[in-house]
């Protein structure tokens, strides 16, 4: 077996052919894998100085061919990524032909896609499995494909992406050939390819970057010391972090402020390690791995206060901040900051993330925000790292009191993904703020909807004529949520029954209901106001300036003049215009996601006019309820944006 690092260009250039064996599955990548690859390519194309980008391993073995034929290799592992690259190159060739750039088209075709001087099957550099073969040949030969398989879907996906791209096709071709890198593993001719494939895929685990890193280290350590170094440094790393090892090494490399993609760990570490420093580097990796283990698995943290804050942060998924926390932990271990100071850092981080979650600030920028913190701390705040940390975060999308207070009352807390876990943590924290001496066992509690998710006749009558509107707008908001161990018993019971059960609760937040005889929209809004004020005190603004709390009903009686949605500007004169234009824009740009909004808000959107009081038709044929107050329209639009995972930055109304 031979293994070497090589550019993708070296794999596919030359007179050769890769044959996907029959025991391999057909091409099966989906938009999930295509999107990851595309985003990596976009980032490389837009980089001023792109670096080599590792895309995995290619395992193949030579097969017997006649003397005048091409050199043929069975493609044992890596067919999915290699086939995808060939599809991209086919599209680039076709686009060059459409633009009358025959020279560029011929360069791609004759050096990367085919063996131009060979005939029949030898003409093709890649031969997929029989199921995909004819479709692939049609692509190579420039014939339109009519078979709706995954190859066709991949082809359509990348055509759409390239139409939107802001870089030149020649730049993409250069990135693919010169900057994409693989580990090429060539098996011996007498190896059994079927057994090798089974071995590679027995656990569904490809060769990891941690595997490559281990081999790289020990190639640079004298053979006489390899057992000793392995047992003392590398083996403890594997035992401590197991499947998290590659991600730990990435976070370790990022702790000084570097931004590093997941596939670039191996090459980044290679730049830092040499034969002269390899053992010292392993020592440092082992030291920081202890800190990392405590961050990821708080039960290993000996300090109970820090353990508590680690647990809380892990519940709101703070992995993007791990590189920064590694640095702070090292400062704590070296006594450059005290235990209480480190705890303040952790509380500040939680405060920052909770406020952003409540205000629906995009999370996709966190992987760029946190790496930038450390360099700025060292440059401007090295004298007081803890206060400097607050100052830096304050300027990185940290919501002020007015927005936090408003959104805390109106945001749909309960929902899919990690929203339930974050909502439960927030409710627990509200309860803990009463500072009872007896500890509440929160692990046995679940989130309870006071106005239930399925409304009985009692609830419909109780809520009044607008019960559907009330449920859709207020069901998942904080005013309608609490904690209980009796979720099954409560279910959709009437409010009188629920108050009796809440009265037996040991939770302070449930004593609120003891004096109430009804639970309608007005009561939900009043409780939301109480909890919002409590939240502003718990996660208090840590910057130098605060702003006054604003009333969520301030839009009543106002006249909108402009609407900005998903980067587009529109003129509007009424709140009904805001509603219709918002829905038309979403329907145009995100038609599939629009269906999700319609499913979530059937009282606001319907194809049946009889289900609405006053309806207006929008462009996609749906009818929308327009007999709504300005406040209801604003709430609905905001929650509709949340439903499709868009944020407050994507929707903004300018008032006259």
In short:
By secondary structure, the chain is an alpha+beta fold. The protein has 29 helices and 14 strands.
Q: Structural class from helices and strands? A: alpha+beta
Count the helices. How many?
Answer: 29
Uncertain stretches:
197-205, 548-553
Question: What is the CA-CA span between the terminal residues?
Answer: 73 Å
Q: Could you tell me the number of beta strands? A: 14
Largest β sheet strand count, sense and barrel closure: 6 strands, mixed
Domain module count: 4
| Neighbour order of strands in the largest sheet | 1-6-3-4-2-5
- What is the overall silhouette? globular
Radius of gyration over C-alpha positions, nearest whole angstrom: 30 Å
Helix content: 40-55%
Mean of residue pLDDT values: 86
Taken as a percent bin, the fraction of beta residues is: 5-15%
Quaternary: single chain
Written account of the structure:
- This protein is α+β, with helices and mostly antiparallel strands.
- It folds into 4 domains: 2-201, no CATH class; 209-399, no CATH class; 405-538, no CATH class; 560-655, Replication modulator SeqA, C-terminal DNA-binding domain, CATH 1.20.1380.
- It has a 6-stranded mixed β-sheet, with helices on both faces. The chain has a 3-stranded antiparallel β-sheet with strand order 10-9-14, with helices on one face.
- α3 (79-98) runs antiparallel to α4, α9 packs parallel to α12 and α17 (366-380) packs across α18 (385-394).
């Amino acid at each position: 077996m031979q293994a070497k690092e090589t550019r993708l260009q070296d794999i596919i250039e030359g007179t050769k052919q890769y044959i996907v064996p029959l025991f391999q599955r057909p091409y099966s990548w989906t938009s999930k894998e295509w999107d990851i690859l595309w985003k990596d390519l976009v980032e490389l194309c837009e980089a001023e100085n792109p670096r080599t980008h590792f895309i995995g391993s290619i395992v193949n073995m030579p097969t017997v061919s006649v003397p005048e034929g091409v050199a043929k290799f069975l493609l044992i592992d890596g067919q999915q990524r290699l086939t995808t690259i060939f599809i991209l190159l086919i599209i680039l060739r076709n686009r060059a032909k459409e633009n009358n750039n025959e020279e560029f088209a011929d360069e791609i075709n004759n050096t990367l896609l085919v063996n131009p001087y060979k005939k029949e099957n030898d003409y093709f550099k890649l031969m997929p499995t029989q199921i995909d073969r004819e479709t692939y040949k049609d692509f190579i030969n420039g014939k339109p494909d009519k078979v709706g398989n995954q190859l066709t879907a991949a082809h359509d996906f990348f055509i759409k992406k390239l139409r939107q791209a802001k870089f030149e096709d020649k730049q993409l071709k250069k990135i693919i050939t010169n900057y994409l890198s693989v580990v090429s593993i060539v098996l011996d001719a007498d190896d059994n390819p079927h057994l090798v494939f089974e071995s590679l895929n027995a656990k569904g685990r490809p060769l990891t970057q941690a595997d490559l890193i281990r081999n790289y280290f020990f190639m640079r350590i004298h053979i006489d010391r390899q057992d000793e170094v392995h047992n003392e440094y590398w083996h403890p790393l594997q035992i401590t972090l197991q499947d998290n090892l590659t991600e730990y090494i990435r976070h370790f490399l990022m702790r000084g402020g570097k931004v590093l993609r997941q596939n670039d760990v191996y090459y980044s570490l290679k730049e830092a390690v040499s034969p002269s420093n390899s053992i010292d580097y392993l020592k440092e990796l082992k030291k920081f791995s202890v800190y990392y283990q405590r961050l990821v698995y708080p039960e290993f943290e000996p300090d109970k206060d820090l353990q508590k804050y680690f647990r809380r942060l892990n519940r709101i998924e703070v992995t993007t901040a791990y590189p920064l926390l590694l640095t702070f932990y090292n400062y704590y271990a070296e006594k450059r900051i005290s235990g209480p100071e480190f705890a303040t850092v952790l509380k500040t981080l939680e405060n920052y993330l909770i406020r952003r979650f409540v205000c629906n600030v995009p999370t996709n920028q966190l992987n760029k925000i946190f790496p930038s913190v450390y360099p700025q701390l060292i440059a401007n705040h090295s004298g007081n790292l803890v206060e400097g940390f607050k100052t830096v975060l304050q300027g990185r999308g940290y919501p002020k009191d007015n927005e936090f207070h408003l959104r805390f009352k109106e945001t749909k807390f309960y929902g899919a993904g990690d929203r339930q876990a974050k909502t439960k943590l927030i409710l627990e924290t509200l309860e803990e703020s009463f500072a009872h001496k007896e500890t509440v066992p929160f692990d046995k509690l679940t989130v309870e909807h006071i106005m239930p998710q399925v409304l009985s006749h009692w609830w419909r009558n109780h809520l009044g004529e607008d019960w559907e509107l009330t449920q859709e707008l207020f069901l998942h908001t904080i005013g309608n949520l609490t904690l209980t161990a009796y979720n099954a018993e409560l279910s959709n019971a009437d409010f009188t029954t629920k108050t009796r059960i809440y009265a037996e609760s040991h939770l302070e937040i449930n004593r609120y209901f003891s004096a109430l005889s009804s639970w309608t929209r007005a009561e939900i809004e009043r409780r939301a106001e109480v909890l919002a004020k409590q939240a502003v005190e718990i996660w208090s603004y840590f910057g130098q300036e605060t702003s006054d709390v604003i009333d969520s009903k301030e839009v009543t009686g106002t006249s909108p003049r402009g609407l900005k949605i998903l980067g587009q500007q529109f003129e509007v004169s009424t709140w009904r215009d805001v509603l219709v234009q918002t829905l038309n824009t979403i329907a145009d740009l995100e038609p599939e996601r629009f269906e999700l909004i319609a499913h979530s808000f059937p009282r606001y959107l319907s194809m049946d006019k009889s289900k609405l009081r006053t309806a207006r038709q929008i462009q996609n044929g749906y009818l929308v309820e327009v007999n709504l107050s300005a406040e209801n329209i604003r709430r609905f639009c905001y929650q509709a944006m949340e439903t499709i995972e868009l944020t407050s930055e994507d929707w903004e109304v300018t008032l006259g």
